[in-house]
Write a structure and sequence with these properties.
This protein has about 180 residues and is α+β, with helices and mostly antiparallel strands. It is about 25% helix and about 40% strand. Strand 5 and strand 6 (about 85-90) form a beta hairpin. The relative contact order is 0.27. The model has no long low-confidence stretch (mean pLDDT about 95). Pfam families: 2_5_RNA_ligase2 (PF13563).
């Protein structure tokens, strides 16, 4: 049986990806960790793991039924998790819409055999991997705002020493209240 390594995520616009890469280069020394490629910067909503084509199809059909308004995401927090070796960018206060969307996708995934971690959902964009030594974080005051209007399903492949993410499907969120 053929499987794919899949996850639901929020895409970051290319301009924001480039801005974050420059900010990362300006604020973290090269020895801090392995930088995540600009095109791979995203915010995972639900990791699915190795998924069969049938399960993928079912989860995509369920995702297409989601009726939820878009929301505004403020990237204004950063941190370091030494054990998994991750330096991340996140939000001090996650918007309710983000938490609801992730919760719904994670619950659907779990019901269809995609084990979900026991850790609570902590929305973040991974900036560096293999950051196992202490990392000095930049002073507060950074802030990027993103209008979230859709979410996507990605496949993760590893070839020739590189991880690549390919969008398989994308679904709109309804217009943000007040838009």
């Amino acid at each position: 049986m053929t499987t794919q390594r899949l996850f639901f995520a929020l895409e970051l616009p290319t301009a924001l990806q480039q801005t974050l890469v420059q900010w990362r280069a300006d604020n973290f020394p090269s020895e801090a960790g392995k930088p995540v490629a600009a095109a791979n910067l995203h915010l995972t909503l639900a990791f699915l793991g190795e998924v069969s084509a049938a399960t993928s199809q079912t989860l995509q059909q369920l995702a297409a039924r989601i009726q939820q308004p878009g929301f505004t995401l403020d990237l204004d927090d950063a941190g370091h998790w030494p054990r998994p070796g991750v330096v991340w960018l996140g939000c001090q206060r996650a918007p309710r819409g983000l938490l609801q969307l992730a919760s719904l996708l994670r619950a659907q995934a779990a019901r269809h055999g995609c084990a979900q971690g026991t850790q609570p959902f902590h929305p973040h964009v991974t900036l560096l991997r293999h950051a196992t030594s202490p990392v000095a974080l930049p002073p507060r005051g950074f802030h990027w705002q993103l209008q979230v209007t859709h979410f996507s399903l990605f496949a993760s492949t590893y070839a020739q020493g590189r991880t690549r993410y390919k969008r398989l499907a994308r679904w709109p969120l309804s217009p943000h209240p007040g838009d």
